[in-house]
What we know:
By secondary structure, chain A is mainly alpha-helical.
Amino acid sequence: MHAAYKKQEDPHRGDAITALNSKPSKPFKFKKHLVHLFLLPALLLYVVFQIYPILAAFYNSFFDFRGYVRMHFVGLNNFVKLFTESPYNERFFNAFGHNILYFCVVFFSELCLAFFLALLINSVTKGREFFKFVYFAPKLLSVIVVGFLFNLILNPIHGALNAFLRAVGLDFLTASWLGNPDTALFAIIFVSSWYGLGFSMLVYLAGLQSIPQEIYEAAKLDGASGWRMLFNITIPMVMQSIMVTVILTFIGAFETFELIYAMEGSSGSPYYATDVLTTYFYRLAFGSIGSNSSIGLGSALAVILFLLVACASALLLVFFRKKEVDY
Amino acid sequence: MKKKILSLFIPFLVICFIMSGCSGNDSGSESGAGGSDGGNNEKSKEPVTLTMYSWRTEDQAGYEKIIKAFEADHPDIHVEFKPFKSTEYNTILSNTLVSGQGADIIQLRPYNKDIPDNGYLVPLDDIKGLSNISDQFKDAARGSDGKVYGVPLSLNNAVIFYNTKIFEENGISVPKTWEDFVNVCETLKSKGITPIAQSGNAAYLLSLLHSVIAPSAYGGNEFVEKITSGETDFTDEGFKASVQRMKDLAQYFPKDFVGISDDDAQGLLYAGKAAMYINGDYRLSEFHEKAPDLPVDVIPALETQNGKAPVTAWVDSSYAVVKKSEHVEEAKVFMEFLASKQFGQMFSDTFARVSAVSGVSPEQPIIKKISQASDKATTPYLMLVHFTGGSPSTKTTFENALQGMYTGQVTIDQVIQETQQSAEKWFKPMQ
């Protein structure tokens, strides 16, 4: 503003003064903004690999495709089709239901079981690191490897689980875990919970360890019991960790794909019993063996999935922000 | 202020610069490649290099041998066989077709009209030697305009493999009809042997199984003609009977077969725990690799009502010429070679597969047996050849419904209803 004012008064002199004034500060300013340059590679990668595909999916969802070729603009037709036309709507709601179930079960196991484990580990003084490692170890494996291993374990012919059940005389409990529509999804959810338990536990543990001991001591002096301390101190204090895991679990439950793909393929075998929105998306967008792809419909589903996860995550955030306690 | 705005622009300028740099590099390599190709054109003495894309990485050595034979007769054409992983092939192919760079010749998935209909390929109706290939097989590479866009390469046959030792030891003779087949299954079951090593976790295996079982129920090609012309549909009694047979067979499969993979099923066959295995003839090379001592023979087909035993056959792939290629004429010369009996024989002998070129006599005894049976009568793999349209395709809908039938989630009538509804959406004769 100062420079502009001077300019009005006497343009030539003003320029000279600006030039004179800014000269010493120029290298400093350039250096200051040089920092922004270092963000470029990351920004570029982010735009090309994150923003662009999302925008492209939005764009494609309004078009009709023949193979990989974009044909006509069809407005919201793809969305209407997904929700109203058979078999698309049946598959959608079937898959959506499975995602909800997936979230509920994993939510329960990650929230309650992982929290309980974290409390236990937090209270032991000896071997804490060992238990931490044991529960976290599955997370070190790749999801695909886990899927493959459990495919072997759950195999009805030579799987370890059925062999174990037979060995202890529980023959009636043996099952074709992944081939039976009543057990297949639960088997996968179980594996997923086992896989993710350690991570949630670590998040809770970090939360628990950051609670100052003085608060507990003060509560003890006030005569608070164990349960009271748990509900009135511990849980409110780790609300942030709970928020993180619940949101991550929610996103995870709606974006789960690798494990199901590794264990049951993309067809939601047996007969859509393990179909979730992402496997349904995969089949729509890329086709399957002997099946054509419909990129328009696939993109529409991707957009729905994106909005669903984004909105629900935002709502969860708002919900938890209200419950948060600062200390 | 001005400086600030300017400095904010710097990143964008740099982005533009980097991007232009990238595209500059691209065009550089393009013109480089084009330049060398151009050079080839000018000096016609120098051999032209044709690049052929394939999804058969395992066939590289064999193709190199065959290509040498071609190059001996055509010193001015050099062919480079470039295979990609099968699961990545479709993506690579669509990239190369859209950009028009990379391949001159491509391996084409069968019975899919998308690529020819989008104008990426050169029609090949005038290729010498294409008459060596039956019209039924040329359908695999036909566009909607009726022109042939690919030279069919190999045929697949779905057959019944059986363990000859188990059959001999139990005094079982090779079944000819459906009734014989069921009796054989009963006998095996009563002796504690799993009659058929079938897996059901990948649904496509079920429609493949159907292709072998069904012709004996619906009566082979007469039904195929009727259903493809719209004279009848999937509610036809013959088709219903074929699904019923699929259900009847379930008792002869391994326990919990929907939960086991094809590898598990093969394992049962190798271990002698199961007597038969129904799949494509291409599994033979796997048997030789994984269980070279397996005493295996083949039942090419079961008889239909008219006494014929049509072998279920379909084209596995074709080779096509890319329209944007700079060497279309040379590629067509290679296509002539692919349609020749010489190539058919070499292909069959090298890869132990059935060639699409008629009159080729394979060396491998089992392949020879299948080939001889299919010379007498063939019937298409109905779902793959005629019902892969729609999204999801009728074939996928059907095989998933079969899986549901085996897990007790849907009835036979529901399988038929789902299949019919799917076909009505896109299959013109049924609309």
